[in-house]
Amino acid sequence: MQSVVIVDDEEIPRLIAEKALKEKYGVRCYEDARTALSELSETRPDILLVDLHMPDMDGYAILNAVRQLEDPSLSSIPVVIMTSDDDSDNEVKGFDLGAYDYIRKPLLPDVLIRRVDRIMKREEMLKHLEKKSEIDLLTGLLNRSACVQQINENLQMRRDSGLLLMLDLDNFKMVNDCFGHEMGDRVIARVADILKKLVRSDDVLGRIGGDEFVIFYRGLWSREALRERCEDICHKVKWGMEELLGISPGKEFGISIGIALAPQHGKEFLGLYQRADDAMYKVKSEGKGGHAVYEEYCEMEEEESSIISIAELQDRIEKQDFFSGAYEVDYEDFCSIYRFLKRVGERVHSPVQIVLFTIKEAENADRRGVEGRMRSFGGLLSKTIRRGDVMVRCGNKQFMVLLIGANEDNRHIAIDRIMNRRSEEERKNYPIQYEVNTLIS
């Protein structure tokens, strides 16, 4: 059941709101704002109704406190302000702070119910659309961008420890070549169904490429528990593939798993992914169909580096670039690339332009869902600018891009291509402002 939390120090309006809504929604009432805030992680309402004028902590203060919460599922709760004021300046202030709507006092039950119903339906639609944009259509798992986002949230916002598993099917090209691409899709879907049963509700599971999957297991795991889980994954995936393909057990098909530990091997997705991919490469080179933890062999790298061939080294490096669009990196790597380009720019004679995009909001735009709009615009950037360009998210509402090989005369081509691919509604409600500078002329 959807739920509403009501915060009002006056008993009569509080009782009117509770009586009007309790037949349709779960309702919790508070006369003290601080208590309501302290229990928000427990109540987790779909809507928060707050009175504007209260002693000690008014509606603006509550609204501001909610928007500052680290948990995005709490900080994005629609906050509706109840007030008897008829002052447009107060409304503007509330909307600037992130209020969803205003309801006038004295409360009219029929109006209140309809207003809450409308907000609930709108939120359900937004959540559905946002969820749909994050899903890989073949498997029903999270897609690459959603995986990166959720894993980074676990690592950076929740400061979780955990395990990142990089999983790659063995000899999958043989499936497509021998059984056809339709069977290949069925194999991918079967593996996804198997993996769904081997993760918990608060873990992250996604498909990040053709036959590549990632799992982020939260928390600390013993080596024995990790070994058992990986062996279970390998056994069930191998059996599932062989059953679907109708072949006898053999060594042709299965899955290889590379593992990186957080925070020991990295504190963000890309660093962990690269180390897990190194570990997975180790498994592939030793016969496939098994698992390896990055730290278990990294001490041997110095010895191995003296005998590895250049072709093998290039293959390992290139396998780490799984991004299909522009090269998206974290801020620290972006700064390194920036400095490197500045250093070699005069020698390579290749111009570079730097562009800073900032998402704005029209006055009448819905101020919620900023994170969803950022992900959407980031996806647009990745698909629109060239594969050789570099991009980074550098704030709550900003992306920075390095246009490699673009000069002052033709840089507008890439920018116009990005701006023109936004919908009419996006341009109207969430215009993009950009600044351009020449890094290397």
Automatic annotation (TrEMBL):
PROSITE patterns (alphabetical): GGDEF, RESPONSE_REGULATORY
Q: Which GO terms describe its molecular function?
A: diguanylate cyclase activity
According to the UniProt record, list the residues that bear 4-aspartylphosphate.
Answer: 51
Q: Which residues form the GGDEF domain?
A: 160-296, 350-441
What are the protein's UniProt keywords? Answer: Phosphoprotein
Reading the lineage from the top rank, the first entry is Bacteria
A Pfam family annotated for this chain is GGDEF
- What Gene Ontology terms describe where this protein resides (cellular component)? plasma membrane
One of its GO biological process terms is:
negative regulation of bacterial-type flagellum-dependent cell motility
Which InterPro entries does this UniProt record tie to the protein?
CheY-like_superfamily (IPR011006), Diguanylate_Cyclase (IPR050469), GGDEF_dom (IPR000160), Nucleotide_cyclase (IPR029787), Rev_trsase/Diguanyl_cyclase (IPR043128), Sig_transdc_resp-reg_receiver (IPR001789)
Domain named Response regulatory is located at: 3-120
Q: What does this gene product do?
A: May play the central regulatory role in sporulation. It may be an element of the effector pathway responsible for the activation of sporulation genes in response to nutritional stress. Spo0A may act in concert with spo0H (a sigma factor) to control the expression of some genes that are critical to the sporulation process.
Query: Which NCBIfam families does this UniProt record tie to the protein?
Result: GGDEF (TIGR00254)
**Protein name, per record:** Stage 0 sporulation protein A homolog
Q: Which organism is it from?
A: Oribacterium parvum ACB1
